[in-house]
Structures are given as C-alpha cells and as structure tokens.
UniProtKB/TrEMBL annotation:
SUPFAM superfamilies: KA1-like
EC number: 2.7.11.1
Any Pfam family matching the protein: KA1
Keywords: ATP-binding, Kinase, Nucleotide-binding, Serine/threonine-protein kinase, Transferase
Organism the protein comes from: Popillia japonica
Domain KA1 positions: 41-89
Catalysis performed (reactions): L-seryl-[protein] + ATP = O-phospho-L-seryl-[protein] + ADP + H(+); L-threonyl-[protein] + ATP = O-phospho-L-threonyl-[protein] + ADP + H(+)
Enzyme class: transferase
Protein name per its UniProtKB record: non-specific serine/threonine protein kinase
Length: 90
C-alpha cells in the first residue's frame, strides 16, 4: 500500500508512470528546503510547468498536490486530467 511508502519512493513511481505515459520535455526531482520534502518539477511543450508534491499530513493517507507554475490554464487543466487518469493507486 502506497501510504506506507516514503515520499521519495512514491515520487519515483509517479515519475516512472508519467515518463511512460505522458513524457515531459523535462522532469526533475527537487528538495524543498522550507518543509524538507521533495517535489517533482515537470515541463511540457508550450511552456507548461507543473510541480507535483506528496502530501502526508495524516499517518495513514498520502496524496499528490499539483500546481501550475507557468503556462496556459486550459492546457494545464487538460494535462492534469491526463496525469490523473494515467496514475492509479492499488
């Protein structure tokens, strides 16, 4: 179950899934110094930049937060829907 995995492990699975389903132009894992967590930064054609972060405020639950850094809102929304549909939790 993913809720027992570490943040880095979850981000690695997400990164592999994205690279195989909707490959970005650039994909970088960054450490976020303000909260000591890791983030996945994605860049797609047309200047769309997305940041994915694992949220684990509850002990038994983890989620993914997606944030648009730059690019068109409509294209971002379509891309997010594609990202969500290619990821499944088992």
């Amino acid at each position: 179950m993913c809720s027992k995995w570490g943040t880095a492990d979850i981000l690695e699975v997400v990164k592999r899934t994205i690279n195989s389903q909707i490959p970005p132009k650039m994909c970088v894992v960054k450490s976020a110094s303000e909260d000591f967590s890791e983030k996945l930064s994605l860049e797609y054609e047309g200047g769309i930049q997305i940041e994915l972060k694992i949220i684990d405020k509850r002990k038994d639950y983890k989620g993914i937060k997606m944030r648009r850094i730059s690019g068109d809102h409509l294209v971002y929304n379509q891309l997010c829907q594609q990202l969500i549909s290619c990821m499944s939790v088992s």
